[in-house]
Amino acid sequence: MNDCCTTERSSTLSADLVGNKRAHFLLWRLPWIAVLASLMLKDSSLKAGIWTAAFTQMGVACIANASGCGRLHCYFTGPWYLLAAVASYLRGTGRLSIPWPAIAGLTGIGVCALWWGPERLWGKYAGRSSLATAAFDRFTDGARAALQQAQEEAESFNHNYIGTELLLLGMLREGEGVAARLLDEHGVALDRSRATVERLIGRGRSDGPACEPIGLTPRSKRVLELAVDEARRLKHNYVGTEHLLLGLVREGHGVAIAALKSLRGPTDLPVLRQQISELGTRE
Fold this sequence. Notes:
Order of helices and strands: HHHHHHHHHHHHH
Helix content: 55-70%
Oligomer: single chain
Shape: elongated
């Protein structure tokens, strides 16, 4: 596997601990079992120690998972668990008069609300909205479809990231945009491209817990930024698949470029820019 492949993959997100049954049991379920089992303890200091440790562990685990994976609810439940840990400590020292069952109940209800609410509104992973850049409202339906197709390609490859090679496959799979037509004119077909990508980077494991493909690699983010700039250069008030293709070629590195070179696809930026400029049509 060449360097361009490992460079793009190095920025992928960590596995989702919430989706890992073993990790979820050890980091969250077991501490909750300890909290509930100690509810009837008479020794307030011992109970406070168990609860403080349990809630702290769950809070730190949530924050670590949010940082590593982007699991959205963890950004909210982590601080809530830590607040419960502080409340448990204060209750044990006598500086808080809230009954123990109330602390457990409020913590549980709060966790459920903070889990369900944000993920219902914004999705499971914070990075999922990363495709919506400041200029995303200028993206054509075709460009948005290509990005959605790229995410679906990532899922089929069992990858938890969207690299430049998946952006390329997304443009081809979209099928009706300017980029797909230009690639077809150069003999770059979806099936051959998918086989080339698989040869270059392989498929991910399907048996391990992983985050959904929620985010772009830094190189793919750069491609989107360059696509917006290419639209500006061509004095287009929209960003279409042709601009995504220009951004991909202009970025000049990564698995997509390696695949295009292997397939004898378009990699000459000035020539491609001229072809698109002559088309002058919005998809």
